[in-house]
Specification:
Blueprint lengths: L13 E8 L3 E7 H4 L5 E8 L10 E2 L4 E7 L1 E6 L2 E6 L3 E4 L7 E4 L6 E8 L3 E6 L4 E6 L2 E5 L15
Antiparallel strand pairs: 1-2, 2-3, 3-10, 4-11, 5-8, 5-10, 6-7, 6-9, 11-12, 12-13
């Protein structure tokens, strides 16, 4: 059996364009690991236009995440702390660490960063201060409040 080499040339990865969302704004994601058919971890390059956020504050029970800034500047919100990140800066988020995080582009230029994270079959994503959890089991997603009662998506609550 020969070596299988998957080269993904610049500009050829699958693209996901996030529509402008009232809470988050827009984004573009180059889905590198999906294009390469990887299953153990996810890797993508996300670009946030000025004023956009990567997500609402959240943390994962079972998945590590990290980002590496490629260009531009973002504000990392981590719990009550804020840090400015620019090209070459990185941030790591350990699975199970109950401190919410998200990125926000508060600059006047697009900001791009590499995102790498574990892909587990099961995860619980907690949204601090919003009384919501996302329970993910493979492709099934169930939203609950902090007590486990059925609830709407945290992204639908304030629209």
């Amino acid at each position: 059996m020969g070596l299988i080499l998957t080269v993904i040339k610049a500009g050829t990865a699958k693209i996901k364009n996030g529509e402008s969302h009232p809470l988050l704004g827009a984004y573009t994601a180059e889905l590198i690991s999906d294009t390469g058919n990887l299953t153990q971890f996810g890797a993508l390059i996300e670009t946030l236009p000025k004023g956009s956020k990567s997500s609402l504050l959240h943390w994962h029970a079972n998945e590590d995440e990290m980002i590496l800034m490629l260009s531009g500047q973002v504000t990392l919100h981590q719990g009550d702390e804020k840090s400015e990140l620019t090209q070459g800066d990185a941030a790591c988020f350990k699975a199970g660490d109950p401190v919410g995080h998200c990125l926000e582009n508060t600059s006047d230029q697009d900001a791009s960063y590499l995102v790498i994270g574990t892909r587990t079959s099961e995860d619980t994503v907690t949204y601090p201060g919003r009384n919501r959890k996302l329970l993910r089991n493979n492709d099934q997603r169930v939203w609950t409040d902090e007590n486990g009662n059925a609830a709407s998506s945290v992204y639908d609550d304030e629209i």
